[in-house]
Amino acid sequence: MRKLLLLALVGLGAQLVDGSLGMAYGVTSTTLLLAIGTNAAAASATVHLAEVGTTLVSGFSHWRFGNVDWPVVLKIGVPGAFGAFAGATFLSSLDTATAAPVMAIILLVLGLYVLGRFTLFGLRKDRLGLPLRKRFLAPLGIFAGFIDATGGGGWGPVGTPAILASGRLQPRKVVGSIDTSEFLISIAASIGFFVGIGSENIDFGWVAALLIGGVIAAPIAAWLVRHVPPRVLGSLVGGIIVLTNTRSLLKSDWIDAPDGVRYGFYAVIYLVWAAAIAWSFKQYYADKAQESVDAATAAEEDAAKEPTTPVPA
Asked: Which protein family is it in (predicted)?
């Protein structure tokens, strides 16, 4: 019961992050499942089955709040479903000893990307309104879907920053569209895992726990996306993912690092992570201050352009 409650809390927290940031539900949940000894394919299958429900509720919530661009959902989601099915069948074919460190490497790379992307660059907003083309979204969807299924997460960490980097869609609509299209990816990946490993290797109690937590958080996250500072949240989540998967990789059969080496890595990660969070907070408040200055300057310019009313003699 304690483990199920923990999984429900993880599902809730992961969905709050995912619905606000457009990524990290799968990466966060899969990382925990691997940490408690679940094999790679079963961990990814469990998370994707839970995501069928969480993404459905999340997509509906984002739609209600006006955060979804439906052409983008279709252009990236349909190719992404094919990539997810291929990734699930590929991961299912690997033996457990090989799959665990492979997944840890994928998750570690995604964690580093999330940490670096949001700490150093924040969000780009200078190209809003330009169209997103299918020739960009379709290959992105296939790649992100494949990585998502093989890594137990990756649809958001690959898709969200790529579309944000294009600067052609409002950040809240990027998050909402990625979260909504992930419903297709979750279904395709789940089918692939059922074909590859069968249902007997999946703990449906764990699926239900993750699902319940995620469903509770989904509507809250869709509202938070309008208010949460993504830069800070990205730094926090990225650091967790990097730390946990570095630990998994260093303790794997591939490396089996001694305690002194592992603790040295952990110390460096903690220092870098703390610096990243501090920098993100600093830049967030600096950006807010600059926005206030720009707004005041624009207001003064508008006032200067208004014709003055002559004073009667």
From this structure: Belongs to the 4-toluene sulfonate uptake permease (TSUP) (TC 2.A.102) family.
Of the ranges 81-90, 99-108, 161-170, 231-240, which one carries the lowest mean pLDDT score? 161-170
Distance between CA atoms of residues 87 and 269, nearest Å: 30
Domain membership of residue 9 as a residue range = 2-287
CA 163 to chain CA mean position, Å = 13
pTM, to two decimals: 0.63
Reported as a single tens digit per residue, the pLDDT across 241-256 is: 788 778 878 877 778 8
Dihedral (Cα; 202, 219, 6, 239), 10-degree rounding: 100
Nearest to 1 by CA among 206, 150, 194: 206
Pairwise CA distance, residues 240 & 107, whole Å:
11
Domain-embedded: residue 299:
no
Residue type, 295: A
Q: Examine residue 300 and state whether it is found in any structural domain, yes or no.
A: no
pLDDT for res 87: 85
Distance CA 95, CA 250 (A): 19
Confidence (pLDDT) at 131: 60
Given a contact cutoff of 8 angstroms between Cβ atoms, the answer to whether 48 and 247 are in contact is: no
279-293: per-residue pLDDT in tens?
998 998 888 888 888
Residue 58 to residue 12: CA distance in whole angstroms = 12
Report the C-alpha gap between 143 and 4 in whole angstroms.
Answer: 32
Give CA–CA dist 201/267, Å, rounded: 36
Structure token digits, residue 101: 């460190």
Task: Give how many domains the chain has, as a whole number.
Answer: 1
